[in-house]
């Protein structure tokens, strides 16, 4: 049995001296405890080294794919089959064994025992192969690993889109975290100086101002000209003297400053990360970056998973990438599907008006799909395609906004150049007739006005016909001008009449509305007066009822008082003064209550 072993330097053929040892793969390692035992079981037969790194890469790539390379086929045909025609060939890969058996008609075997044997041979390969060079083998392994890595990636090592995916995700997280920190700092320092956040709108300028001022009492003597404008600085100093904030301790200010320093550090790191993302996007996808920008391009790559996956999407998918939730909702409810997703934030779409956003997103997605495929699968990394497409889109957007949408195609332009249209200008100048100067009066010829004479009337002469045509052209021109003026004046009159009619209708409608409003107001006032009268009547009726209820009781009380007064007068009549007695008696007589 022969064993085929491949390495970074070439192919090697070994012969198994005792095949019975392969029946126990678990104990096979005992036969390779040292080089002496290994040489007893195996013997080196022949080898074939690679010519250069390209030859090694080609052969190794074919082995990985389970194919028979030209180098291996030539080696087996000339150096192995010609000498060892009856031997069985042990191969590690089952696909490669099938390819060798199919093309060279060589019996091949592969099993777990063969795999274990291959591993043991690699351990003692320097002792089994004569003239083995360890340094040469290490150099070949290093070069082959780099070449194989590039082949697997199928693009430059600089184009690692994983860095872009992680960078854009980290940038989004930094934005959220930085916003939370700044809001926390504003709320914290707002207890001491609440007016500051209303004056300074920029978050970073606010944080730097807090770091510079410290306590608000220091604002008057602090120079803030490097952070905020002069007029804003004046407002800060004026409001610091009359601020309604509370006092804080020095320890509080120390913690606030620590939070502000973290905010500034995060802001600086974000700027550095954004610059890194721009450079990485220009290296990985320059055409896509020029079309949609580095942030939108990075989000598209992150959403698709990789640049290669994004290149597999059609333009329609690139257009709505990121709006899947709205798309499925629209399909479920049978409404209009969204026109754009993440691509909406591109500069070419944001600068277009609302009516052109959908059209521009469709055009930009088509160009972006081409740019992505060039960036992902192109051999040369150039941004010429992106620059050309962006210039075309900007020109198209300008035409759309100005209304110059109609353009002559290349075919139409060629037809126009081959068959140009001819335009002739007919002169409308009236020529003076010289015959009008003649004083000769022609004789009147007698003519017959019978119907037969009219039918057989002779045709006029060519000169006379020319003069008549010139007169007709002049008269027709004057008539056309008059007709045009009449039509224009008629249109103006019709328009003025229409405007006057509309204004009269508006006046009539307004008068009708005013009359209706007056009638409603009068009716409302009448109803209010009627309600007021009903209320007064009800109130008077209640008073009368209450009086009628109290009247019998009052009558009894008056009668009792009258009798008491009568008894009193009768009892003290002889001793009372004359005036009092006379008045009481007169009162009793006038009242006359029974």
TrEMBL record:
Chief subcellular location: nucleus
Stored PROSITE patterns: NOP
RNA-binding is among the record's keywords: no
Pfam families linked to this entry: Nop, NOP5NT, TBCA
GO CC aspect terms: box C/D methylation guide snoRNP complex; small-subunit processome
Bias-annotated ranges (Polar residues): 411-420
GO MF terms, alphabetically ordered: beta-tubulin binding; snoRNA binding
Gene3D superfamilies: 1.10.287.4070, 1.20.58.90, Nop domain (1.10.246.90)
UniProt cross-references to SMART domains, sorted A to Z: NOSIC
Nop domain mapped to chain residues: 284-402
One GO term (biological process): tubulin complex assembly
Keywords: Chaperone, Nucleus, Ribosome biogenesis
Extent of Basic residues compositional bias: 490-500
UniProt superkingdom: Eukaryota
Location of region: Disordered: 409-428, 440-504
Keyword Transit peptide attributed: no
Localisation: Nucleus, Nucleolus
Assembly notes: Core component of box C/D small nucleolar ribonucleoprotein (snoRNP) particles; the core proteins SNU13, NOP56, NOP58 and FBL or FBLL1 assemble stepwise onto the snoRNA. Interacts with NOLC1/Nopp140. Interacts with NOPCHAP1, NUFIP1, RUVBL1 and RUVBL2; NOPCHAP1 bridges the association of NOP58 with RUVBL1:RUVBL2 and NUFIP1. Interacts with PIH1D1. Part of the small subunit (SSU) processome, composed of more than 70 proteins and the RNA chaperone small nucleolar RNA (snoRNA) U3.
Function: Required for the biogenesis of box C/D snoRNAs such as U3, U8 and U14 snoRNAs. Part of the small subunit (SSU) processome, first precursor of the small eukaryotic ribosomal subunit. During the assembly of the SSU processome in the nucleolus, many ribosome biogenesis factors, an RNA chaperone and ribosomal proteins associate with the nascent pre-rRNA and work in concert to generate RNA folding, modifications, rearrangements and cleavage as well as targeted degradation of pre-ribosomal RNA by the RNA exosome. Tubulin-folding protein; involved in the early step of the tubulin folding pathway.
Protein family: Belongs to the TBCA family. Belongs to the NOP5/NOP56 family.
Protein name in the entry: Nucleolar protein 58
Source organism per UniProt: Dermatophagoides farinae
Gene that produces this protein: NOP58
């Amino acid at each position: 049995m022969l064993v085929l072993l491949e390495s970074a330097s070439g192919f090697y053929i070994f012969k198994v001296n005792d095949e019975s040892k392969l029946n126990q793969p678990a104990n096979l390692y005992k036969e390779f405890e040292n080089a002496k035992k290994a040489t007893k079981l195996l013997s080196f037969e022949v080898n074939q080294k690679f010519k250069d790194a390209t030859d090694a890469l080609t052969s190794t790539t074919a082995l990985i794919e389970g194919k028979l390379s030209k180098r291996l086929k030539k080696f087996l045909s000339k150096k192995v089959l010609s000498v060892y025609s009856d031997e069985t060939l042990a191969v590690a890969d089952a696909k490669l064994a099938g390819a060798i058996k199919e093309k060279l008609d060589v019996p091949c075997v592969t099993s777990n025992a063969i795999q274990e044997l291959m591993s043991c041979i690699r351990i003692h390969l320097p002792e089994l192969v004569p003239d083995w060079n360890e340094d040469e083998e290490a150099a070949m392994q290093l070069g082959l690993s780099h070449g194989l890595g590039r082949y697997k990636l199928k693009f430059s090592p600089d184009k690692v889109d994983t860095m872009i995916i992680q960078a854009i995700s980290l940038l989004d997280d930094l934005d959220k975290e930085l916003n939370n920190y700044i809001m926390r700092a504003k709320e914290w320092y707002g207890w001491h100086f609440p007016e500051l956040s209303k004056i300074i709108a920029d978050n970073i300028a606010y944080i730097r101002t807090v770091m510079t001022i410290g306590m608000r009492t220091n604002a008057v003597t602090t120079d803030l000209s490097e952070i905020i404008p002069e007029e804003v600085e004046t407002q800060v100093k004026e409001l610091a003297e009359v601020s309604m904030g509370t006092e804080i301790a020095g320890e509080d200010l120390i913690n606030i400053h620590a939070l502000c320093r973290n905010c500034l550090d995060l802001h600086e790191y974000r700027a550095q990360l954004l610059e890194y993302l721009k450079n990485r996007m220009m290296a990985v996808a320059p055409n896509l970056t020029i079309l949609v920008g580095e942030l939108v391009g990075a989000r598209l790559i992150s959403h698709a998973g990789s640049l290669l996956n994004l290149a597999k999407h059609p333009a329609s998918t690139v257009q709505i990438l990121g709006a899947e939730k709205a798309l499925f909702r629209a399909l479920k409810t049978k409404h209009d599907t969204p026109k754009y997703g993440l691509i909406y934030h591109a500069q070419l779409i944001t600068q277009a008006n609302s009516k052109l956003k959908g059209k521009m997103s469709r055009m930009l997605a088509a160009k972006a799909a081409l740019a992505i495929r060039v960036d992902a699968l192109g051999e040369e990394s150039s941004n010429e395609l992106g620059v050309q497409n962006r210039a075309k889109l900007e020109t198209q957007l300008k035409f759309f906004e100005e209304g110059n949408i109609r353009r002559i195609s290349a075919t139409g332009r060629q037809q126009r150049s081959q068959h140009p249209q001819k335009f002739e200008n007919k002169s409308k100048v009236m020529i003076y007739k010289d015959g009008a100067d003649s004083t000769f009066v022609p004789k009147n010829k007698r003519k017959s006005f019978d119907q037969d004479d009219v039918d057989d009337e002779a045709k006029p002469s060519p000169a006379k016909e020319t003069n008549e045509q010139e007169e007709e052209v002049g008269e027709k021109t004057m008539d056309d001008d008059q007709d045009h003026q009449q039509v224009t004046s008629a249109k103006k009159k019709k328009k003025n009449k229409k405007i006057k009619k509309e204004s009269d209708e508006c006046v009539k409608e307004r008068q009708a509305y005013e009359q209706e409003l007056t009638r409603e107001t009068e009716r409302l006032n009448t109803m209010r007066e009627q309600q007021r009268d009903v209320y007064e009547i009800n109130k008077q009726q209640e008073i009368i009822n209450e009086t009628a209820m109290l009247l019998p009781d009052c009558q009894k009380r008056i009668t009792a008082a009258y009798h008491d007064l009568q008894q009193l007068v009768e009892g003290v009549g002889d001793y009372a003064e004359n005036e009092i007695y006379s008045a009481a008696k007169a009162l009793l007589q006038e009242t006359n209550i029974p």
